[in-house]
Request: fold
Amino acid sequence: MSKERIQISEDLYDIMPSDYQDLVKSATYGKEDRGWKDIGTSKELIEQHSLCAGCPESMAFRYILASLPNPEDTVMVGSTGCTSLVFPMVAVHNIHSLFGNQNAIASGLKRALSVRFPGRVKDVVVLAGDGATVDIGLDMTLQAWFRQEKFTTICFDNELYANTGGQESGLMQKGFVAKMAPVGKLFDKVRLPEIARESGCHYVVNCTVSKPSLVEKVIRNAVHIAREIGPTYLQLYTPCILEIGKNSMEGLQEMRDSEKPTERFAYKEYVSEPAKQLLAELAAKDKERKAAAKQLAGQASA
Amino acid sequence: MADIHSVIGTKNKKGQTYTDTWKMMNEAPRTPSFYTGSEVIKEALRRASCDVMIAYPITPQSEAAALIGELFAEGYIGDYFRGESEFAVMSQCAGAAFGGARVFTTTAGPGTMRAMENFPMWSGARLPIQMIVTCRGINSPLSIQPDTLEIAYLLNTGMLVWHAETAQDFFDWILKGYMVSEEPDVHLPLALCCDGFFVTHTKDVVNLTPADMCLPPYDPYRSPVPCMDMECPPVRMMRDPFVMKSNYISYATHASWQQEIWAAVERSRKHSIHWLNGLIDTENTDAEIMIVASGTAVSQGREAIRLLEDEGVRCGLVKVKTLRPWPEEEIREATKNAKHIFVPEFNVTGWLAKEIKATVPNHERVHAGPHVCGGMTMPPEIIVSEIKTALGMKTFSLAGRGS
Reply:
């Protein structure tokens, strides 16, 4: 989609919703170096959402949407859960269909877009909770990776079923007492990042969303690698402050505490050899572009 | 519209000419060919300008699904792969249709049941996917034999449901089905059902349209809902996500959308009549005894009529072609002279008889039977026997154990 497509006819301008006017005026579609720093100075691709006050998932959403390298040609796929309360407010085409089938939807979608738009970039990004990714949808999560489907899978890991009221999930820590785990969860947190690597993902990151710059980096890497090489997986800790008994302002600290080197969300990354090569190429191109821009700026001022 | 018309007469990469569908189906020369039902599905797909086909093995549709793979290898299909289960396949089909592709898949029996959660989602999302259902048993213990019980589960999904009798129906309806499904005022998925094995695994003479003609491509921008390809503005779909809200506006939104889906099923009626030459076919509607059937039970009914004629009993026939939209008026009209209406079926519950009882006045006229199931065949003699018994005529035991 070119940016021209979202322009408003002058005659209709005043009757368009203000958030759409803002999108046309100051969204960052097509901006090459868009990122988290645009937040506050441009129209974000997310409107008001109905998540709980202080929910780390809302931070994650804002950082991710600010960091997508190509939102004007990106389609997102969600699943059932708190994320499905947010997606209707997102200014990127997105699909909700059923619970747990997100990677199957994305497989069909990516292939359809490849058939319909040969030679054009159309990125597909899946964003779903841990119940959708690891429990009910695990089969389709893994099979998409086995088939080397070229899209990014993001899991918002809050270690339980938040939207249905705090039930045990596969990514919950062992021993945690929750609904449907009345004597504490009896088995370990599923090690999906390792499974992702073994299943053929070319880029796997396990981290929290406490640092927007880090979220930006991993999102850009994941989308670029998925576009060129094959499946990528990001597991992001977005704690459900409600269900772990925290207050609205405590989400950030909870993430910081959980990403300490010995904790379960200490930054972990796997990059396959072809992906490493691609990232090096992208970094070199980026450097070249910046140098050229600097030179141009120098010439202009001289 | 403009896009579609502009490609008529041009060639695709396989050298086939995009042809006006009405001309292709009704005016182009036909070549008689001796094919199995599975091969006929392949030949229809060769002419369907299909973008994405997703396959999964389950008897008795595996052969058709694999043959379409050959079409993909030859370059007739945009993309093709084997999914991991029917639930996943139907979601993959949804993804491809959300992305603006013309999508085709095939399934059967337990596969239909496993995938079931997808079907109301397909119709709710207005995805004009075509799914061939080669019906087989869904009971336990495991059965792979013909049995049409699964159709009953499809009737309330909001999909169009057609029931083919012969391989010829299949060939024509696959191609015509897309024309009905993809109308902007319909834009719903189609379950095109047939009786597994009886149609898929037997050979029949089928009149094929020329192989160098194909359907005009699907235009996703005629859809009544936006195509998810980021080629149109990503407008905010709603102020509040009403998905899980408990308030009147939420209920009203969901209610009106459900009503709209069924209104779209109704609107498919005029297009189906146009393309299928009516929702039912009839013979001898002046007779006092009528057989109303769908699928291969129609063929058996036709044989029974011939046998009864030999004995001086005049009997008529209604072939129900579309189950959704349901030909209510047509069936009422066709059976208005009937004193007895017999509904032979290949399933244990008699879902078609129930539909007909709910449709015709004086429904005590409806005899729900004969039923066979679990893979049993339906010799025309048992239809004859059912009719003669109901009429108080003498009949002999078919089981051979004496009377």
Summary: Chain A has ten helices and seven strands. The first strand of chain A starts at residue 74 and ends at 77. The CA atoms of residues 152 and 223 of chain A lie 6 Å apart. The beta strands of chain A are 74-77, 94-95, 123-129, 152-157, 203-208, 232-237, 268-271.
